[in-house]
Every structure is written in C-alpha cells, then in structure tokens.
Amino acid sequence: MSERKRRRRPLSPRVLRWEDRTAWPMFALSLVFFAAWVWSLADTKLTVHQQNLLVGLIGVLWIVFIADIVVRLAICGSPREFLRTRWFEAVALVIVYLRPFVILAYLWRLPWFRASASRQRLRLVILVSIFTLLFVFTASTLVWLAERQDAHANIVNLGDAIWWGFSTLATVGYGDFVPVTPLGRTIAVGLMMGGLIVLGVTSATVISALTDQMHRVGQRLQHERALDAARGSTPGDADDSMPS
C-alpha cells in the first residue's frame, strides 16, 4: 500500500449522518432550483417582478447549497478527503450549469433506496435516466446560448433547442433545427459523441434491470409451485398410494 493511501482518512460518521438526514430536503430543494432556473431561462414573457422573484428564490437556494457544503466541511474529520470525494458538489457551486447534476448525488444518498436490493436496482435505473435527461438539457441550453445572438440561427428559444437535442440524441436528425455558429456546432459534436455512450449505458442498465426482475419473478414462481406440490403430497396420501 502506498504512503498516499495510508494517509487517507475516511469521512467522519457525522458527515455521513448529516448527508442521510438532509438527503430528502436537499433533493427537493435541488428540484425546486432546477425548475426555477429553467423557468427563468425559458419564459421570455416574465414581468420584472416575476424575474426578481425567481432570481431571489435561486439566490436563497444557492445560499442553502453553500451552507450545506460549509457545514459538512466543518464537521468532517478530513477536509481534504471531503473535497476529494465531494469535489463535484464544490465545483457545481461555481459553475451553475453543473448544478442540476448534483440532483443525482442527493438521489443516490436517499435512505429509501438502500432498504432492499430491488430498490438499489431501481435507483440505478432512475439515476441513469435522469442523467440522460440532464445531459441533453444542458447541451441544448449551451447550444441555445451560443446560437441565439446569431442573425442566421434558427435555434432561437430553449424549447427549440431541447427539441433539437433530443432528436440529435435519438439519431433522428429531422434537420428542422441546426446549429450554425462554431461554438454551437462544437457543443453539438460533444452531444453526438456523448449521446452514443449515454444511450448505450441507459439501454444496458434498463435491460439488465428488467432481466434481473424477470429472473427473480421466475424464481418466486418456481418456489411457490414447489410449495404447492409439497402441500399437495401429504403423508396420508403417500400411505394410500402404497400397495397392501
């Protein structure tokens, strides 16, 4: 074992307990943040008052996210180990477009999914599915931001960008919306290449979960049939069937 590995300290149990207790609230607040953020981007008809309310809500939630990181840093046994294992959450406090992906971290920590093996498999399917949606949404948003100021662009609102993103991920390619700027096309290439991997992982995860579920159902049916057969074959029946 290397010297570096020997020096690593596990996260404090206090941090793990804190994360267990705050998993549901932080998961819910992350969903609220995502909804408010998308609304502020997509709705161009918001009044100034509505915009201020959304910005205020996003700001309050951002303060909550920062406070959560600060508390965990304060109670952890090793700040370096905390940042090594929770680095993405820290980076997402700086890069807002990464913040929606932190939903996956909170979802992973929800205690409900740890109650049984079937729930853990369900958690994996949900995680992969949500990651796919967030991946397409983030890429589509970045393309829209890169395209909307160009005079020749036809991706001029977030709805068109999301439609383009999903049609690109599905390899349909209707051609009704296409990026025209160099930055937009660069992001589109990233979506195409990453989409192949994401679709492959998503399909494999869902198929594996369904196959495992069918296997467990088959085993349960076999067990029930064996019990029914055992109940039907009683000692008295066996004696009656013996020749005198």
UniProtKB/TrEMBL annotation:
One of its GO terms (molecular function) is voltage-gated potassium channel activity. Keywords: Ion channel, Ion transport, Membrane, Transmembrane, Transmembrane helix, Transport. It is found in: Membrane. The keyword Nuclease does not apply. The keyword Transmembrane applies. It comes from the Bacteria. One of its GO terms (cellular component) is voltage-gated potassium channel complex. It is a multi-pass membrane protein. It holds the Pfam family Ion_trans_2. GO terms for biological process: action potential. PANTHER family: POTASSIUM VOLTAGE-GATED CHANNEL PROTEIN SHAB, VOLTAGE-GATED POTASSIUM CHANNEL. This is Ion transport 2 domain protein. It comes from Microbacterium hominis. The lineage of its organism: Bacteria, Bacillati, Actinomycetota, Actinomycetes, Micrococcales.
